[in-house]
Amino acid sequence: MELFSVTALLLIVCTVFYLITAARDKRQNKARLPPGPTPLPILGNLLQFSGKEVFQTFIKFAEKYGSVYTIYMGLERVVVLCGYDTVKSALIEHGDVFAGRGRMPIFIKMSSGGVISSNGERWKQLRRFSLMTLRNFGLGKRSIEERIQEEAQFLTEEFRKTNGQPVEPFFYLSRAVSNVICSVVFGHRFEYDDQRFLQMLHYLNEIPKCAASVWGQWYNVYPKVMEKIPGPHHRFFQAIERIEEFIREKIKMHQETLDPNFTRDFIDVFLLKMEQEKDTTSTEFHMDALVHTTIDLFAAGTETVSTTLQYGLLILLKHPEVEERIHQEINQVIGRNRSPCVEDRARMPYTDAVIHEIQRFIDLLPLGIPHKVTQDIEFNGYVIPKDTTIYPLLNSVLQDPKQYMRPHEFNPGHFLDDKGKFCRNDAFMPFSAGKRICLGEGLAQMELFIFFTTILQNFKCKPLMDPKDIDITPESSGLGNIPRPYKLCLIPR
């Protein structure tokens, strides 16, 4: 009898959700939503996605339904944009309407109220303030370049200590890259053996792993349910808590030593802005915004560049002929007696092309970060209702066969013309595009060039296996592409 009751209840629940879905589909047709696969009650289209390579399912849907289509992640409606022309039209030509930040619980958990996950007036004010402050502390100026050059030398010394023995490069790279953003946000760098610093880097490393995992993907769809279910995704929650504790400690120390006449870093400037607006009831500058915007800068400023460097060195192990050409260009332009600088990039087209191709090929965030439309919009013959979540599929832009000759192969020639000069491509969008483009793009490009050239100025990368046996496909591909762990030998030149 009890089993019958439970079964009957389940049938009633499924029937109700079927009717809700049917009514929703009817409204969809009237609203002229883009086409898409038929969703199941509650689950939406989730069962149609591959857990390890989610974006591949998005590409298959595009082949069937076109460059603009609708899916359901659970009960949430999502419109997916595919290909350079479509993404460009949305993010650039209709930038104001597509500038909202879409719902992604894993980012909200990490950055609720920060510059990445916020919307409306809060996002506008925090983004404007963050860009202005970063520029004042040297983003785009020589001072930040000198910080990167200094950190690249510290990294070089650490690599020398390995004496050419096999080493996993990730945490070496992570410490160096993180120290650049730390010097801007916290006002100082950390020693490489600082245990608190190493702990924070460990926690930061948990974030992309969780986001790329099946557990992280399910959390994005059913956050309230997943928070109650045990599993490895709880390591992500613990990592966020520890990072937030660390940031709050740093802010408290800044409050105790704040000098209005001498601002040391981003936190100081934000605290002074909070003081200026303490009597403004509608201010967006308060402690919650400071904590989570600092987390945004610290996390994004560490993980994206260090992962790109890690993946880039793996690709060079696979393609030693590419590394050799970079060595030749370094010898011709920089030599061995001075540090590489940003000005060198204009005279090193091949190296510049390789760095761009690494970013294109690794496709670090294949799904992009979700947007949402801020009003109803007619787009590509369809009507997208206000507040609909938008996935601008960056993978489909960076591997668009109309824009790149061999999109699925690593080929620096994608960014070189017939004369060997660097050639820009408008479809190069690893940092997204439009009003929501990554605010740290300039800093990241500067870091990638200086760190790559400094490492290769001083070392030759030696693989531990035959290059043809090196696997450069991602270890996992969810929200982000995670490279496979590896070791290499750094042989002094």
Automatic annotation (TrEMBL):
Keywords: Endoplasmic reticulum, Heme, Iron, Membrane, Metal-binding, Microsome, Monooxygenase, Oxidoreductase
Entry cofactors: heme
Any one cellular-component term (Gene Ontology): endoplasmic reticulum membrane
CDD domains: CYP2
Enzyme kind, highest EC tier: oxidoreductase
The EC number(s) this enzyme carries: 1.14.14.1
Membrane topology: Peripheral membrane protein
Biological process according to GO: epoxygenase P450 pathway; xenobiotic metabolic process
Binding-site list for heme: 438
Single Gene Ontology MF annotation: arachidonate epoxygenase activity
Chief localisation class: endoplasmic reticulum
Subcellular location: Endoplasmic reticulum membrane; Microsome membrane
Family: Belongs to the cytochrome P450 family.
Full protein name: unspecific monooxygenase
UniProt source species: Leptobrachium leishanense (Leishan spiny toad)
